Amino acid sequence: MNAYVLKIAYDGTAYNGWQIQPNVPSITDILEKKFKLIFGNYATIVGASRTDAGVHAMGQVAVCRTEIDIPEQRLLRAWNNALPTDITIRSLSKTDINFHPRYNVAQKTYYYHFFLNRPMPFVARYGLFIQRNIDLEKLQQALQIFSGTHDFRSFCTGDECAGKTVRTINQIKLEYLRRYNAYRIVVRGQSFLRHMIRRIVGASLDVAMRPDVSLNKVQDVLLACNPAHALPNAPAQGLMLYSIRYKKGDK
Known about the structure:
Layout: E1 2-10, H1 27-39, E2 43-47, E3 56-66, H2 72-82, E4 87-94, E5 105-115, E6 128-129, H3 136-144, E7 148-151, E8 166-177, E9 182-189, H4 196-208, H5 216-224, E10 239-246
Parallel strand pairs: 3-10, 5-6
Antiparallel strand pairs: 1-3, 1-4, 2-3, 5-9, 5-10, 7-8, 8-9
């Protein structure tokens, strides 16, 4: 058995997320099917982050395990040539058979993009177009409520809410991208719960657009540790997995 570590970029618009699911296209499904088509053998692919439907990536990390031994550059070139244009393997190299992309992660960086003016067509699908007035200073203050270590039970979805929900956000900040006339929320941490970032962003944007709602609303929801609240979940299209950094000695 051979193992290869991959760094993958994809536009998630047309896919039902990273994980294989019955009767719908996913990133893993496409990668495995194209591998079988080109090399006539099976591969199993495990990713570091199970991104949801419509979420994009610049730096998803995955391991590919297969019985066949193929030179790295040949494998990379042939596999990429078979993939649709919205999925690209940015790099590929042999790794230890025991490497698992979800272990020994030092930090993940996610971006959430939004526009306050109608975006150009070639970037519109990568961000949320907000057509309401928004207080950017209030937005920054709302985001800072989530910085540090907290119980994020109020900002998760599904079965994960019943498990350990304490996480640490190392950095969360707002940036302006002049080139695209867009705003970027940067979120960095070692691990995140399902929908955690989208629920944090959705709540912060909502409060920043409502002069009648104070920042205490966000603080109260966080402390309540109850995911059943009315603050919204930000749409998937604005979210991007930008990079994953591993602890020293790992990929």
